[in-house]
Write a structure and sequence with these properties.
With 150 residues, the chain is an alpha+beta fold. The chain has five helices and four strands, in the order αααβαββαβ. The chain folds into two domains: 6-46, Orthogonal Bundle (Arc Repressor Mutant, subunit A), CATH 1.10.10; 59-140, 2-Layer Sandwich (Alpha-Beta Plaits), CATH 3.30.70.
Length: 150
């Protein structure tokens, strides 16, 4: 699927808003018959535009009380160093997102921990202990007035 038309874009906006919407309700909202709507959604899934569906969790309800973003600079810029770092963070449940970025550092991470003590443990004992890590800068999330991650 190359370019999305307005109807497909409308379908995607509705699914982003509510991934559990029934096909009948979705069809009504986008102005299609249920069968035409279902075909479109299936094509969006088949073509990889829709990669999957997720539950959006309430962090506090599952014991997550601390969120931070971290930038991480590596001491060595080789492919082997990057791969070793990525393997390490992939094993860390506190790391909810890892992005290789451009600029003065190599990575941007989103970290979720139970509390400040849990974050400090991750910062010092896990991330700080990796031989590839040269620098860490933390940005503590105080509030998220807009967050569209699913």
């Amino acid at each position: 699927m190359n370019k999305l038309d307005q109807i497909s874009e409308h379908i995607l906006r509705e699914l982003i808003r509510d991934g559990r919407i029934s096909n009948i309700e979705l069809a009504d909202r986008v102005g299609l018959s249920p069968s035409a709507c279902l075909r479109r959604v299936q094509e969006l899934e088949r073509s990889g535009v829709i990669k999957g569906y997720r539950a959006v969790l309430n962090p506090g309800a599952i014991g997550i009380g601390f969120t931070a973003y971290m930038t991480v600079g590596l001491s060595d810029h080789s492919k082997a160093s990057q791969e070793a770092f990525e393997r390490s963070v992939a094993r860390s449940p506190e790391v909810r997102e890892c992005h290789n970025v451009t600029g003065s550092v190599e990575y941007l991470l989103r970290i979720e921990a139970t509390d400040l003590a849990g974050y400090k443990h991750f910062h010092t004992e896990v991330l700080g202990a990796l031989p590839q890590v040269k620098s860490i800068t933390s940005y503590v999330v105080m509030e998220s007035p807009k967050d569209e991650r699913a």
